[in-house]
# Entry
Amino acid sequence: MRHGVKGRKLKRTASHRASTLNGLATSLFLHKKIRTTEAKAKEMRRVVEPLITRAKHTLALSGDGAAAAKVHARREIGRVIHDDNAMKALFNDIAPRVENRAGGYTRVVKLGYRHGDNANMAIIELVDWNEAETQAAPATKMAKPRPTRNKAKTAEAKLAEAEAGAEEKPKKPRATRKKKAEAAAE
# Structure
């Protein structure tokens, strides 16, 4: 029994799980909002929130050892976030904006089920960002769900197909194996 065992395994080894969550955290810092499975989104909060808190605390540092502490914090976060642009976004954009927030920097919004494997999908986003600012980030194309086979074609598509079929010449029937063998024997 798994009484008191924290975290989700996500059907991965420990190193693969860490790599997956680190990559998702990097994407969240770059795009401020990402779409993933609900389990990964909930597990990613456990990675992202301490990183934001650590970056936020470096803003308040001042005094003799402040420079060394800031470098140390960047290096520790760099163990998780390997992208320079994501690091800059975290320290320059995200941390100053959440400086007065006591925690809860992310929001998980459930979307429903994914077409194909019926997985629970969710959006995880940073709480203090609105839609206008996230549109400025580089947009990636989301894959469109494949249409099912039993959906009827639209009327325009049927007409275009009928017109194209009327203009083409009828095709010759394909030669069967028997006919090919007879032609080779001749």
